[in-house]
Specification:
2 domains, 25% helix, 13 strands, Rossmann fold, 4-stranded mixed beta sheet, 280 residues, alpha/beta, binds zinc ion, globular
Length: 280
């Protein structure tokens, strides 16, 4: 198999991300108020007791932590009808002329196309050079490849794993499974509910980079609690994700000196809940 190894440094990633992120320049207070206002427009936070907790909060730490289960079970109640309906933009580790996206609706850069999960057979002997897909879609693709029902002779660039609260995460050992089955470098990403990029893996492959101007991560009882500053359509305000990770503060070999999430995984007790949510 012909594997193309192309690595972009982290400054390239940051340019990609920040040129479309007007909120980067907002102060922490402005970002907080903007997100609170977005939440107040949703049916869930319109209820008096929920609205009061938002309105009385001076900072993020004053807000109650919301279990992911509550949000995922009642997602329509967390939709802000006033927000821009544009989906998040897919960010690739490098440009591709033939990237196929499966299992997640996103705005696509040039050279990318969407494929419905029910039409995986269309990948067979296609020109696909890069795949971007949810963990569930990748499991199905690998099962087909291993059963020799699907051949991807032109896949040579990368596999992007599109993970999140709804999509779930890869399980232990599944990165190796992807490499064995597809034979191309794996780049994991963590996306918010609006498709906004929260954390991304660089070409050094040592963990997921994140920026506090995009997302706030707290660790409470070993669980990551997420606030996404860009998710204004489906505001994520202190949501207990059911995920755990270790934060590495060493400078990454790509040159980025911001923290990296290592071993992002589902906490044992939350696996079944989130897997169920991903299937629902
Ligand atoms: Zn890096």
């Amino acid at each position: 198999m012909n594997v193309v190894l192309r690595v972009r440094g982290n400054p390239w990633w940051i340019r990609q991300i920040e040129t479309v992120s007007p909120a980067v320049e907002l102060s922490p207070e402005e970002k907080f108020r903007r997100l609170v206002n977005a939440a107040l427009a949703t049916p869930y936070f319109t209820r008096r007791e929920h609205a009061e907790s938002l309105l009385s909060a001076q900072s993020l730490k004053d807000l109650p932590v919301l279990p992911a289960r509550t949000l995922l079970d009642h997602k329509s109640r967390f939709l802000n009808p006033k927000a821009d309906k544009a989906l998040g933009m897919l960010r690739l580790p490098f440009e591709s002329s033939a990237c196929v996206v499966v299992g997640k609706k996103l705005r696509l850069p040039k050279g990318c196309s969407n494929l419905d999960e029910s039409a995986l057979y269309r990948l067979h002997h296609s020109a696909t050079r890069m795949l971007a897909a949810t963990p569930g879609a990748l499991r199905r693709i690998c099962a087909l490849v291993e059963a020799r029902a699907l051949a991807l002779p032109n896949l040579c660039e990368a596999v992007i794993v599109l993970q999140g609260l709804e999509e779930g995460l890869l399980y232990a050992g599944e990165r190796d499974m992807l490499w064995r089955c597809l034979g191309v470098p794996v780049f994991e990403q963590w996306l918010g509910l609006d498709g906004e990029l929260l954390a991304w893996e660089c070409g050094v492959h040592q963990g997921l980079h994140f920026r506090s101007n995009r997302a706030e991560l707290e660790e409470i009882d070993g669980e990551l609690v997420l606030t996404s500053w860009f998710g204004l359509r489906t505001p994520i305000l202190r949501v207990a994700t059911g995920f755990s990770a270790r934060v590495d503060h060493r400078v990454c070999a790509c040159g980025d000196d911001q923290p990296v999430l290592l071993h992002l995984s589902m906490k044992q007790s939350s696996e079944s809940v989130l897997r169920h949510a991903a299937l629902a």
